[in-house]
Amino acid sequence: MSRAIPIAVRDFALPAPRTGSIEVHSGYGATTEQGVEIHVSLQAERSRQIEGYEAEVALAHVFAIGKLLFRVGGRIDGIVPGQPPLLEEIKSAFDAEALARRLEATPDHPYRLQLQTYAYLYNEKHGVVPVLRMTVVSTRTRALVVEMPLEYDAARYEAWLGRRLAELEEEEKARRALDRRRKKLGAALTFPFATPRPGQIELMAELETALVDKDYVMIQAPTGLGTTLGILHPTLRHALLGGSPVIYVTPKNSQHRVAEDAVRQFQEAESKKSGIRSLTLTARSRICMKDEPVCTPERCEFAKNYYAKVAAGKLTEKLVRHPLVTEATLKGFARKYEVCPYELSLGAAPLFDVIVGDYNYVIGPHGLVGRMTAALRGKACLPSLVVDEAHNLFVRANENLSAALSRNELERLEGDAALLSPEFVDDARALARAAVALISSVAPARGNVARVTPAPRKVEQLGAAAQGLMARYLASPAMIGARDPVLTLVRSIDGLLAALAQPADAFVTLYERDKGDEFLRVVCCDARDALAQSFSAFRRVVGFSATLKPFDYYARLSGFNQESLHTAEFTSPFPKANRKLLIIPQVSTKYRDRAREVGRIADAVQRIAAVRPGNYVVFFPSFQFLADTAAYLTPPPGLTLLVQKPQMTRHEITACLRQLAEPGQHNLLLAVAGGGLSEGVDYPGNLLVGAIIVGPAIPGVGPAREALRDYYQKHYGQGDDYAYTYPAMAKVIQAAGRVIRSELDRGVIVLIDGRFVERSYSDLMPRDWYVDSVRELVSTSILSDLHAFWGSAGGTP
């Protein structure tokens, strides 16, 4: 027989066949941190009160079925000595009474099966059938709610055991078949084009070598190199040869299309039907079939009996027959089989070869990483991770772990409570007022900003009140629509309390008074530890972007292990004659100089855009600077002025791009660097002939940014660089990359500000922007240089 396959009791003790609904008391999933804390506290109390009490006792047994061995193991929460001994499992929930009722009424509940499994393991080891007790504790009051005695029914358990082992045997056979299929795919995987783009061959060769002995890779490569295919081909090949998939993550859902198109190209290049399978994960809020994602069987028919419906309909097996699963595919399954499309996508993900998703599936509490690793065997079989636009990863992680409460927003929600059912109006208003009171409790006597520490007791009381209201609200027949006041209020409070519970060193709590509002804000300064923990679930991690310099900055803050890191920079493969890069250092865009310089900036923009007809985009550091300049700006004849608005929707951005693409129409677009029109968006063909970048996009100075600067100075000795200079230049380079996207594109890139010739900024530029000195880009006669560029051979855009 082969070596025993390890499986945790939590993953082993599941209903066979599956039953149950998606809900907090389903028993599927891991214990929360708060639950672990309550376990430890109660175990310590038991040890003091009961002589000989043992906590976290390891039990294991090897089961054989056919030619397979499964080693099932885990730790029982507690053993009370006696004749016979008593085995105790501790479970916790906010609504502990509801959990107790569910356990009482559901013999095959996963929690009951876990305790029954421990009884079996104990009996196999010691030859004694123990007494069993399920202990349920409230996370709200931390009080012990019920001690439920359970009988070990050997006949019933062994009948379940036979079914479960038969399931595992089939699952393992399917896993091994999947492993063989992937290895065969990996061996046969070829690049989908006979002639790679210039630079792609070098990129793939570099990555092939790095993947052999490095766990982390960072690649800086410009747009137009064919980076997505160049990164995905060697990474996917290595992963498939190891029998594992690739998870490809992007900053936004809207950027999934690039990865999906790459997978299609691989699929179209294959002649065999058993080709690469791809699944795109979509955010819960976007793919949810209801107005609000409230995952309880009482509120959602797609959550009700979900596990039974998926098992009975063999839905994961049906889904994997689709070679390219997208949001539309999943919603089709949801409508046909009345199952949650979000949960179905997560459950089926381990069966696909390429899983495309948002950063949140790696850095957030969405369960994807855990599900993937639970379905695989050993480090070598772990999935590989590809991070697109990797310069954004740690920024997004910091944002996800940060949170804030606004007094004005809370008061608005207090007013919206009038729309609720009468029995919840007073409680919702009281909760909103309590959150406002928490903000007010830390307000300084003087000044508008302070680092604060809210009173733990007040925080705990606010959390208990929020959870209590939520439990009562969801248990009621009240109608829940989009932007429901109770759900919005409770989620806002929960987000802040979760941030407050994080380790203090990398987090700063601030009180701010600004523009007629008050905020209680928790700022995550450094998410590297959380990211590093997530990365431990991957065999290798490959991050790529057009802006990853300096590499040590991005590697440190992104949680990459620098001892096993390979870095490489690639330059544009397109003729340098197709691009004109110029710097105007005589103009200052510093905040203190803007009022004096804004007229000169507007004049420069007008003159540059008048040289050659076409679409131009002007990138500003902020919307305010954009508005100030627009007031002085008259577009050259034949150009229509377009202006980016704050918080433009995806549809508005698409409409703007369509207007740029109108034949015969030329536009001057004013946009903000780092926004939706400068990153993660394509301007294909001759959609743009020029980009004018007005100054380094220095982040706005404020309490949160200054907290970051102080943290970076303390921990890395480079506060200003890490908080201001490096993020600014990342936005500049991203904005500049919008112009030249193919070997046929021609265009100009003009940088306006004297800081661009300073070494602290020029060292961060791609190495092909200049040869020896950044001063090569400074023009003494910019209009003449532009006329000469457009008048050169092939100068028509």
Give a short summary of the structure.
The chain is built from 29 helices and 24 strands. The protein is of the alpha/beta class and 797 residues long.
Which labels suit this protein?
alpha/beta; about 800 residues; 24 strands; 6-stranded mixed β-sheet; 8-stranded parallel β-sheet
Instruction: Give the count of helical stretches.
Output: 29
Total number of β-strand segments?
A: 24
**Could you give the distance between the termini?**
68 Å
**Strands in their spatial order, largest beta sheet:** 10-9-11-8-12-17-7-18
Summed over residues and divided by their number, the pLDDT gives a mean of 90
Q: Strand content of the residues, in percent? A: 15-25%
The general outline is: globular
Q: What is Rg?
A: 29 Å
**Helix percentage:** 40-55%
State the low-pLDDT regions, or none.
Answer: none
Which sheet architecture does the biggest sheet show? 8 strands, parallel
The helix/strand class is alpha/beta
